[in-house]
Structures are given as C-alpha cells and as structure tokens.
Amino acid sequence: MVLKSNIPDGPLASKWTNYKANIPLVAPNNKRKLEIIVVGTGLAGASAAASLGELGYNVKVFTYHDSPRRAHSIAAQGGINAAKNYQNDGDSVYRLFYDTIKGGDYRAREANVYRLAEVSVDIIDQCVAQGVPFAREYGGLLENRSFGGVQVSRTFYARGQTGQQLLIGAYQALSRQVSLGTVKLYNRHEMLDLVKINGVARGIIARNLLTGELERHAAHCVVLATGGYGNVFYLSTNAMMCNVTAAWKSVKKGALMANPCFTQIHPTCIPVSGEYQSKLTLMSESLRNDGRVWVPRRKEDAELVRQRKLNGKDIPEEHRDYFLERRYPAFGNLVPRDVASRAAKVECDKGHGVSPTGLAVYLDFADAIQRYGRSEASKLGIQNPTAAQITELGEKVVSAKYGNLLRCMKKSPAKTPTRCR
Ligand SMILES: Cc1cc2nc3c(=O)[nH]c(=O)nc-3n(C[C@H](O)[C@H](O)[C@H](O)COP(=O)(O)OP(=O)(O)OC[C@H]3O[C@@H](n4cnc5c(N)ncnc54)[C@H](O)[C@@H]3O)c2cc1C
C-alpha cells in the first residue's frame, strides 16, 4: 500500500502557494463540461459546492438532511480562528500554524496546516462578504476572543452561534448557485456507496429517502464533505445523525483513514445528568476566556457538594483549587481542550469532582463579573460603586459577551450559572 499525501514539494511556507501558482488551469469553456459531485452540505460541503459552482463547474450536491441548514455545523458555538492580528498581540500566520500543530499533538500534516493558517485570513473576509454577522467592537471593527491553546485573541465569533451564522452564509451562497443552475441540490439523499473506475472515484450510489429509490450519479470527481464520527462514542456532542456512513463506505473502497484519535474532546460540556442520556450538550470553550475552572481543594468539601449539603459559593478561596491555573500558569484556563479535559478527569478521579455524579468541575465567572463591573462603573462615571452595583453591571457584560452560552449552563451544579461566590 502506498501512503501518498499529495503534499507538494518545496519549503513549508510556499508548498501550496507554489503549487497553486503552477497548477494547470481549466479554461471557463472547459469547466462547463466537467461534473463534480459533492456529498455533504455542512460548512465544508456547502462552501465547496458554492465555490465550484461559482467557478463554472457543474455541481451535484447531496445531503441526507431536508435542508443544508440541518448539517451539524449549525452546532458550532465558539468561533473561527484567523491570524488577522487585529489586536496587535503578536499574532501571525506562523503562530496560528504553530498553535494548531501543537494543539493537534503534532499529528497533523504541517504543509496543510500552514495553508489553513494562511487562508484563515481571507476566509473571514469571505464570510463577512457572505453576510455573516460577526461580533463587532463599538468602533465597528470585528471583535475577537480566544480559544484554548493560544495566548492571542484571534477567534472571530457571532455570539454563541458562530456555526449557525456561518452555515446560513454558506447556504445563501449555495442557494444562489442553485438558482443560477450551476449547482443541483439533492436533499434527503443518502450516499450508500462510492463508485470507483480504474481506481478513481467517479460517482456515488444514493438512496432517495423520500421515495426509497436507488440512484446512480456519475461525475469526473467526487468530493466527500460528510463530517465527523463522534457518534462512535456512547456519549458525544455530535448529533445522532452524524453516522459516518459515507466515510465508512469509502474506507471499504480503499480510502485510508488516519488518526482516528482526532476526535474533538471538550472540557466544557454540561455534566452528564443521568443514565438515559443519548447525547451531551456543549458549552463553548470560549467560556474559558473569562471562566475560571476549579474544584474543592478538600475531598470532604467535594463530597458535601455531591450530597448537595454544600454550595460551591460557600467554599472559601483558600479551599479552592484552580487546577488549570496552578498546573499551566502560561496558558491558565485556556490550555488546549484535551489538556483541560485530562486535568479535569484527574481531579474527578481523585475525588474532587462536584455535582451528584462527581464528574463535574466548576467554571466560575465571579472574578470576570467583578472585573467587568468595576470597569463599567468607571466608564459610567459612578463614584464608589456598591458591591451590588458592580455585580449587576458585571453580570450584564458577561451576559452580553457570552449570551446564549450561559443559558446552557442552567443545569450546572452551581446555583446561578455564572457565580460560585
Ligand atoms: C457542539 C459542537 C461545537 C463546535 N464548535 C466549534 C467552534 O466553535 N469552532 C470550530 O471551528 N469548530 C467547532 N466545532 C467543530 C465544527 O463544527 C465541525 O468540525 C464542522 O462544522 C464540520 O463541518 P462539516 O461540513 O465537515 O460536517 P457537517 O456539518 O457535519 O456536515 C456533514 C454533511 O454531510 C452530510 N452527510 C453525511 N453523511 C452523508 C451520507 N451518507 N449521504 C449524504 N449526506 C451525508 C450531512 O447531511 C451534512 O450535510 C464544533 C462541533 C460541535 C459538535
């Protein structure tokens, strides 16, 4: 078996740039003669199909959902990274590349990650042009926050609905091509098999989920953009529909699958609440920008919390262990997701976990509320604000910043979703 990634030759930073500059082009009149099948209409598939249609190819795009807007991309909350360096905090294409390689435990293909970092800058502009309502600062510039594993602010977001807004943007662009006739949309169609001719993917077999009929579709090229496979795990934040059938069929046809360990782990989920759960609910990791993660330092306190005899807010500061800040002072609460998840598991395994299951840790906004509250009071010219005024002003800022994400937390072990003190 030949392992060939098709990464172009040359120095890392210019492999793809050189390749793109030298690749033979297809003339507009020839593009019209070429058929492309795209399976999937999430952020990847909808964008690919819309872009290929815009370029002039004949595109057929398939989804088993009723609408492209049902793709699981809609669930993404926290944001999208781009090395724009709007904050002038030292960001660069190289730094995004480096953080991504490191965050992926050095398993990702370097040249492809470099390209991702390079095009991240333009993707934000494209999304804005498609009408994605990213959060903006008072002056009108695009706002940023951070994701785990980074020390700069480069995450562009639309409150807690970034995926939804991006998907609507991609869907708009796709719909435009559908109406222009360059893209034909096959919704409620499930790809059942991949058709290979002389070792090359040249079509798919799909089932029309409304009529039950099997259909054959041929093309010069097949693009699979069929999403992740989180549902191989019993509990996951993926929708139950993310069933990985298309990728599995392709593996059966000889495609190689690398790094199955590349499943996203999230330290900020709503804790498991019972035996009958089929799914987990994510709270975006952007909450770790301002939320501090901690557990009771004393096991007896944790036990009392689990028995609901003690509330986290009554545990004094000296009896709290902000374990991410203690273990990883350079990144604090914004360590990469897997690092934060493992550290939380260590604490729960040691008996410091809270909630009745003992499988939860606190994510506490009390400090952020005080910080923002004091800043707001100063902005509003309030002399000697009271503690209640500071808290009220601070809560407003936190609520505006994280919006619907905090509503997810109503099931968290803390009495109020934002404060443990
Ligand atoms: C809860 C959650 C929060 C997230 N938050 C973020 C975030 O803040 N930032 C970030 O960058 N990433 C985030 N992610 C990850 C990100 O959302 C995904 O990596 C990305 O959206 C995947 O897009 P996709 O187009 O590859 O797949 P999907 O959106 O899952 O689309 C898959 C498409 O393939 C189609 N399909 C699948 N199989 C078949 C088949 N057999 N036949 C026909 N059609 C098929 C589906 O109908 C669908 O249209 C999050 C993920 C989750 C689950």
Strand content: 5-15%
Q: Give the % helix.
A: 25-40%
CATH fold description of the largest domain:
FAD/NAD(P)-binding domain
Placed side by side, the strands forming the largest sheet appear as 5-2-1-9
CATH superfamily of the largest domain: FAD/NAD(P)-binding domain
The top-level CATH class of the largest domain is Alpha Beta
CATH architecture term of the largest domain:
3-Layer(bba) Sandwich
Which regions are unreliable across 5 or more consecutive residues at pLDDT < 50?
none
Number of helical regions = 13
Distance between the termini: 59 Å
How many domains? The number is 2
Overall shape: globular
* Distinct ligands: flavin-adenine dinucleotide
Mean pLDDT: 91
Characterize the biggest β-sheet. Answer: 4 strands, parallel
User: Structural class of the helix and strand makeup?
Assistant: alpha/beta
| Assembly state | single chain
Order of helices and strands: HHEHEEHHEHEEEEEHEHEHHEHHH
Using only CA atoms, what is the Rg?
24 Å
What is the secondary structure topology, with strand pairs?
Layout: H1 15-22, H2 28-31, E1 35-39, H3 43-55, E2 58-62, E3 80-81, H4 93-103, H5 110-129, E4 155-156, H6 162-180, E5 183-186, E6 189-197, E7 200-208, E8 214-218, E9 221-224, H7 245-252, E10 292-296, H8 299-306, E11 320-321, H9 323-327, H10 337-349, E12 362-364, H11 366-379, H12 387-402, H13 404-408
Parallel strand pairs: 1-2, 1-9, 2-5
Antiparallel strand pairs: 3-4, 6-7, 7-8, 10-11, 10-12
Helix pairs in contact: 3-6, 4-5, 11-12
